[in-house]
């Protein structure tokens, strides 16, 4: 390959180089290279000046993407040491949280500001003697800042990963603030169930106001009633929680599910129901919720209807009668279709088109 950086003539076209070679004698190649180099310098200078004219001027109070203030704005920041002078109890609890441990070893100028990275410049607050009204950014129900302003502070850092789809999510569109569920300066002091107590780390702090699913059930009242039914998801036993299936910060999937479909969400745990099968059951392939109520039911196996009515909702009486039969009738043995058709989720037997056992 030719070194194009050493020869600026590569920027000219074939016709320009030919015309230039005709006007410059071949006996002076050094003069030709100098002329080409001068033309290249003039060309690049014009391009750089044009790009500079198109960029809008930056405001004096603008901040860069890392959170560092423009020159002249640093005078309003007093540092976290001034905050600890009065807020010693908050500092003690904050140091044991995930965010507090991160800010002990800051990676960006925003994290290095400590308390003022979230609450804004604190000079006016200090000069006013600690008046609550002088805090630039306050959180909670008594905050004069709007919910959008409060959430914007959190989104400065929490905008990737599980928070990628927060904009336009059901919780964001309903005007929920991050502090409605999270409390960054509060350690969890709640009792766990007998099973979860042995599984949860002793020093875990998620920054939520209370344990799941109690945190979610404050608003989702209907789900609380469903989870109290006889057949329910094992949340009371401490085996699953709401975020095992849903992403509360938003998801591109229906019902804020973690997986792309309801079936994929269910099959993440119920792997024995995953195909492919030689004989597929169409309602099972379509949606698990066609037969099951995932949050809880008064019927066995989280069924929406008891046997055989859950099957009769799709199957007509052309082969098996759907009307009540005597207990001795072979057509309705033990009042349950699965007593004979046990492989209703799919069968790999060559003669399993009827899903028989």
Structure, described:
By secondary structure, the chain is mainly α. Among the domains are: 81-127 and 134-180, no CATH class; 271-354, no CATH class. It has 16 helices and two strands. It has a two-stranded antiparallel ribbon with strand order 1-2. The protein starts with 13 loop residues before the first helix and ends in a 45-residue tail after the last helix.
Ordered list of secondary-structure elements with their pairings:
Layout: H1 14-23, H2 29-54, H3 80-84, H4 88-94, H5 98-104, H6 109-112, H7 116-119, H8 123-127, H9 147-155, H10 170-173, H11 194-199, H12 214-217, H13 221-227, E1 231-232, H14 262-267, H15 282-286, E2 296-297, H16 309-312
Antiparallel strand pairs: 1-2
Features:
357 residues; disordered N terminus; 32% helix; two-stranded antiparallel ribbon; mainly alpha
Counted beta strands: 2
Portion in strands: under 5%
Strand order of the largest sheet: 1-2
Q: What is the general shape?
A: flat
What is the H/E order? HHHHHHHHHHHHHEHHEH
Helicity range of the residues? 25-40%
Overall residue-averaged pLDDT value? 78
Q: Mind describing the biggest β-sheet?
A: 2 strands, antiparallel
By DSSP (H or I, 4+ residues per run), the number of helices equals 16
Amino- and carboxy-terminal Cα gap: 71 Å
Q: Which residue ranges are poorly predicted, with pLDDT under 50 across at least 5 consecutive positions?
A: 1-9, 23-27, 57-72, 188-205
Q: Which class best fits the helix and strand makeup? A: mainly alpha
Radius of gyration: 34 Å
